[in-house]
Design brief:
The complex is a heterodimer. Chain A contains 13 helices and ten strands. Chain A is α/β, with parallel strands linked by helices. In chain A, strands 9-8-7-6-5-4-3-10 form an eight-stranded parallel sheet. In chain A, helix 5 links the parallel strand 5 and strand 6. In chain A, helix 2 runs parallel beside helix 12, helix 8 packs across helix 9 and helix 10 runs parallel beside helix 12. Chain B is α/β, with parallel strands linked by helices. Chain B has seven helices and twelve strands. In chain B, the strands form three sheets. In chain B, strands 2-1-3-4-12-11-10 form a seven-stranded mixed sheet. The longest helix of chain B has 18 residues. Classes of the chains: A alpha/beta, B alpha/beta. Chains A and B meet through strand 2, helix 1, helix 2 and helix 12 of A and helix 2, helix 4 and strand 7 of B.
């Protein structure tokens, strides 16, 4: 996507005069670039430094630092907020891979705190309790890249329009049930294919129907893909789940509760990493899936009340 | 002049596709006119005339390489003189020494190139940047646009290593015989000159081997 117009009102991309050579920091290409580097990898939720080291040792490309994994947030109820910076800092000090952290939807100050700490990616996440029920954060105005969840193409393009440098499916976090992530990924990919087949004259009406920026709809029509990397999250519990999401079009996979709520987290983490690399190699997937022990306990989505769903948060 | 089939076979560039921005390298190499194959097994390594180690997370790629014994295959190929080109994580994997981070997580590397590399040496993601890079041997007609993402740089280079570019006195592009390493990501720009330079190394290497 063009560099132009992808920086916020305050000009997130700073030009630094370093004497002989001018360097530009936090460009759009830098932001998307980190998402590019995470492709084909697994990003794991961790709640302390020890889990972060297990994740890195297993081959995670990044960790998501949070106080409670979604399964516990779901169980505990109450308001879920940004994690304590102390705990995030301990995780940043424990590993060399990128560290992500979550801010509440619309919570500008939580996001600024994470940016000031030097967190590598911010997840403006529906897993936490929203702080604003009308507006998301103006992400173009930040130096740090953002990832946001989506259930369909319109939601993905609204978040990219606001400056998200990576999109992920929402799935239904903390359930160990892949059905919602599959639904969201299929919906996004079908939306892309539909635009691809359109006549140019149809694009504006499609943008209106999707409630999405016209230039991003046009970008998809021209290229057949989203302008930022497209990852999957929400409900991955097994290596086969991770491989399934890759086959449906995900470029990398987030695993939340699925690893550290299982019987043997270190081994499961490693197997899910391998499954994302070899998602098309069934002989290897047999090996990878064999003898893995207990997965996390899953929840049938149909038993959840509407108000218990996390994916419906975000606008 | 009639060439034998071995000679007329088009060059095949393998791109290690375990994790990272391998698709960007595949696209860049195809635009440069090469036949490209993603590499995920030791057997696939052996079939390449040249190999690219992409950007990504060097710990993740290193662990997958070791788990599936692809590291051994790459060392063997490099030993036969097959050119190898690494960007960012790829540079780290090529290095003999890693000066920070290696003690945590026990990072496996290939140890092929006589350089010591510092990981995340420019800082975290908020310090990622772009800058013009003068590399006369690679791009005599003007600077390269260097995209640096949590980038490493070379802190020490052995006598056999040719420094091709520096940024603020730090070595960011270097060559040792048939090995090429960049701290930045030419594959994330539309500029094909570094990929073309590597392709020329592969062609020269094969012609040299024929003589």
């Amino acid at each position: 996507m063009a560099e132009n117009g992808r920086n916020g009102a305050n000009g997130a991309a700073a030009t630094l005069d370093s004497g002989e050579n001018r360097a530009e920091k936090a460009t759009w290409r830098n932001k998307i670039g980190l998402a590019e580097m995470l492709k084909g990898g697994v990003i794991m939720d961790v709640v302390n430094a020890e889990q972060a080291r297990i994740a890195e040792e297993a081959g995670a490309v990044a960790v998501m630092a949070l106080e409670r994994v979604p399964a516990d947030i779901r169980k505990d109820g109450g308001v879920a907020r940004m994690s304590d910076p102390k705990m995030i800092r301990e995780i940043m000090d424990a590993v060399t891979i990128p560290v992500m952290a979550k801010a509440r939807i619309g919570h500008i100050v939580e996001a600024r705190i994470l940016e000031a700490m030097g967190v590598d990616f911010i997840d403006e996440s529906e897993v936490l309790t929203p702080a604003d029920e009308q507006f998301h954060i103006d992400k173009l105005d930040f130096r740090v890249p953002f990832v946001c969840g989506c259930r369909d193409l319109g939601e993905a393009l609204r978040r990219i329009g606001e400056g998200a440098a990576m999109i992920r499916t929402k799935g239904e976090a903390g359930t160990g049930n892949i059905v919602e992530a599959v639904r969201h990924m299929r919906t996004v990919m079908a939306g892309i294919r539909k635009i691809r087949a359109m006549d140019a004259a149809e694009l504006m009406t499609e943008a209106k129907n999707l409630q999405a920026p016209y230039d991003l709809v046009r970008y998809i029509w021209e290229t057949g893909k989203l302008p930022v990397p497209n990852f999957s999250a929400g409900g991955v519990a097994t290596p086969a789940d991770a491989a399934l999401m890759m086959q449906l079009g995900a470029e990398a996979v987030f695993v939340g509760s699925g690893i550290f709520k299982s019987g043997d987290p270190a081994e499961r983490a490693k197997r899910i990493v391998d499954a994302v690399t070899y998602y098309n190699d069934y002989d290897k997937l047999v090996e990878i899936s064999t003898g893995l022990g207990e997965p996390m306990v899953g929840i049938d989505i149909r038993t959840l009340d509407e108000k218990e769903l996390l994916a419906t948060r975000g606008w | 002049m009639v060439k034998n089939t071995e000679e007329s076979k088009p060059l095949c560039i393998g791109v290690l596709a375990l994790q990272g921005d391998f698709q960007a390298h595949i696209d860049a190499m195809e635009r440069a006119g090469a036949t490209v194959a993603p590499v995920r097994t030791a057997e696939a390594v052996a079939a390449c005339d040249g190999l690219i180690l992409p950007g990504g997370e060097s710990t993740a790629i290193g662990k997958l390489m070791a788990r599936y014994e692809i590291d051994t295959a790459i060392r063997e190929a490099a030993g036969r003189g097959i050119p190898v080109y690494g960007t960012c994580a790829g540079m780290i994997l090529l290095a003999k020494d890693i000066v920070s981070g290696a003690e945590r997580g026990g990072q496996p590397t290939l140890g092929l190139m006589d350089i010591a590399v510092a990981r995340n040496a420019f800082g975290r993601q908020v310090d990622s940047f772009e800058a013009d890079i003068e590399a006369p041997a690679v791009s005599p007609d003007g600077p390269l646009r260097g995209v640096f993402i949590r980038a490493p740089y070379v802190v020490e280079a052995g006598p056999g290593v040719e420094v091709l570019a520096r940024y603020q006195d730090r070595i960011v592009l270097a060559r040792q015989g048939s090995l090429l390493a960049a701290a930045f990501h030419p594959e994330l720009t539309d500029d094909l000159r570094v990929h073309q330079y590597f392709l020329d190394m592969v062609t020269a290497g094969r012609n040299g081997a024929d003589n």
